[in-house]
């Protein structure tokens, strides 16, 4: 808010009141288990290296690329990072000429910010050369947290299964009692890699039973369980879903993971297990319906949506209309998630609703998501 100078008290109070009436932005929902890996918007290059035009000679192009390489290697820290971002402006075959330089930077450069930029470029581009894979693995041992996070991003992007054992060791040796974004990302990356072993499962279950385990680590473990469709963790997931005193996000993540584990498409649990999961989700919906206070019910929207989504994934279409109602909720984040799930579940009967939301929803975030989903329907 701008600083207000020389404004009398009545006028100041009026201005503050008017400001409070302005609709605020809808922020990304950190509790969305299916959007947890959404990337931040890419930083735009400060300088550009234009793709070759009709008038540019091969000699001029070669000279421009040579200068760019020298900027990456020899310029000041800020300009080196800018030059690395400029690589996005090149054609793929031109970008590949820089991969070895970026790998060398990741492994040996003393400038942490430049190492981070180099690894980010490789990760976001999904570069999967043998040397790039070595860079991702090497990045896990970097002294800087942000470099390690970029390494994990690259491992997820190309699903580098060779990193599984190293990541499992990293997580297993952690006390899991501190809010460590690298550990959280490592657990979720292991889910993407579908890494599973009896020893690792036991370590995670023990962590969930340990009161000292930090909350975000607990949540990451639940996301991991859904990613690998962990039947071995079903009893713990069912207990968390049913625990009315548990953290709401934890209950929501557990419901999401159970739905994935017994999904008709790609799930591992079938028969009696799926029936148990469905009963657990129905119990959650009954619990929420029985809450008399409307504000308290609204607070449970996240859990309600995850229970509905889980049931539809498991083949129960009786709750589809609940998802439609969520897409018309007053809360923008609730509408956003409902639209996303309509797209994921390919509910073509709601195409008209999604089309309306893409053009007329009050929230820019919801409109954008509806536009994306519309293409899938």
Automatic annotation (TrEMBL):
The protein's GO terms of the molecular function aspect are: oxidoreductase activity
Q: Which residue windows does the record flag with biased composition (Basic and acidic residues)?
A: 44-62
List, alphabetically, the InterPro entries matched. Answer: ARM-like (IPR011989), ARM-type_fold (IPR016024)
Origin, by domain of life?
A: Bacteria
Biased composition regions of type Acidic residues, renumbered to the chain: 31-43
**Region entry Disordered: which residue ranges?**
25-62, 358-377
**What is the name of this protein?**
PBS lyase HEAT domain protein repeat-containing protein
């Amino acid at each position: 808010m701008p600083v207000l100078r020389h404004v009398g008290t009545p006028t100041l109070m009026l201005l503050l009141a008017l400001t409070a009436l302005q609709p605020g932005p809808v922020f990304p929902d950190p509790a969305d288990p299916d959007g947890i890996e959404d990337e931040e918007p890419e930083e735009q290059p400060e300088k550009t290296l234009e793709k070759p035009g009709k008038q540019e000679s091969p000699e001029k192009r070669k000279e421009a690329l040579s200068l760019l390489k020298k900027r990456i290697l020899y310029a000041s820290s800020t300009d080196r990072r800018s030059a690395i971002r400029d690589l996005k402006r090149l054609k793929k075959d031109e970008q590949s000429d820089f991969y070895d330089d970026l790998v060398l930077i990741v492994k040996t450069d003393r400038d942490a910010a430049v190492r981070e930029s180099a690894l980010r470029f490789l990760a976001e581009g999904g570069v999967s050369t043998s040397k790039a894979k070595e860079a991702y693995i090497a990045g896990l041992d970097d002294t800087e947290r942000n470099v390690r996070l970029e390494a994990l991003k690259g491992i997820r992007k190309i699903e580098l299964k060779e990193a599984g054992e190293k990541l499992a060791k990293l997580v297993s040796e952690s006390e899991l009692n501190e809010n460590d974004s690298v550990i959280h990302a490592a657990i979720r990356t292991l889910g993407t890699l579908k890494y599973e072993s009896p020893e690792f499962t036991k370590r995670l279950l023990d962590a969930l039973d340990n009161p000292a385990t930090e909350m975000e680590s607990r949540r990451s473990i639940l996301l991991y369980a859904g990613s690998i469709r962990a039947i071995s963790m079903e009893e713990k997931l069912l207990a968390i879903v049913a625990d009315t005193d548990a953290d709401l996000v934890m209950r929501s993540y557990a419901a999401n993971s159970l739905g994935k584990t017994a999904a008709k498409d790609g799930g591992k649990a079938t028969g009696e297990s799926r029936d148990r999961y469905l009963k657990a989700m129905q119990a959650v919906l009954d619990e929420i319906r029985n809450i008399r206070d409307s504000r308290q019910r609204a607070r449970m929207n996240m859990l309600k949506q995850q229970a509905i989504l889980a049931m539809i994934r498991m083949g129960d279409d009786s709750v589809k209309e609940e998802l439609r109602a969520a897409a018309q909720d007053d809360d923008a984040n609730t509408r956003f998630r409902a639209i996303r799930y309509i797209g994921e579940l390919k509910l073509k009967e709601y195409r008209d609703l999604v089309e309306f939301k893409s053009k007329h929803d009050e929230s820019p975030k919801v409109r954008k998501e509806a536009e994306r989903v519309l293409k899938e329907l």
